[in-house]
Amino acid sequence: MGFVLLALGLVLIAEGLVYALAPSLVERLLEMLRALTEEQRRNAGLAALALGLILVWLAFRLEV
């Protein structure tokens, strides 16, 4: 459970930094996302999911 809270906290920190430091960039990224098809957004989500799983696996493998 501690890892879940740690992961959630790290995600919130990263998200908060993006919104705090570059809110106009967030607006542009949202516009770019709206221009993508649903299939392209789904594929991007699956790619992000795969990358996240790989990073978590590496962290456990390196015993972080």
Tags for this entry?
64 residues; mainly alpha; 0% strand
Question: Percent of residues in helical segments?
Answer: over 70%
User: What is the overall pLDDT average?
Assistant: 92
What is the H-and-E element order?
Answer: HHH
Shape: flat
Strand content: under 5%
Task: Compute the number of helices.
Answer: 3
Low-confidence spans = none
How many individual β-strands?
Answer: 0
* Helix-strand makeup class: mainly alpha
Distance between the termini: 16 Å
Question: Can you put this structure into words, describing what you see?
Answer:
The chain is mostly helical and 64 residues long. It contains three helices and no strands. Helix 1 crosses helix 2. It is flat, with a radius of gyration of 15 Å. The two termini are 16 Å apart. The model has no long low-confidence stretch (mean pLDDT 92).
Question: Can you summarize this structure?
Answer:
This protein has 3 helices and no strands. The protein has about 60 residues and is mainly α.
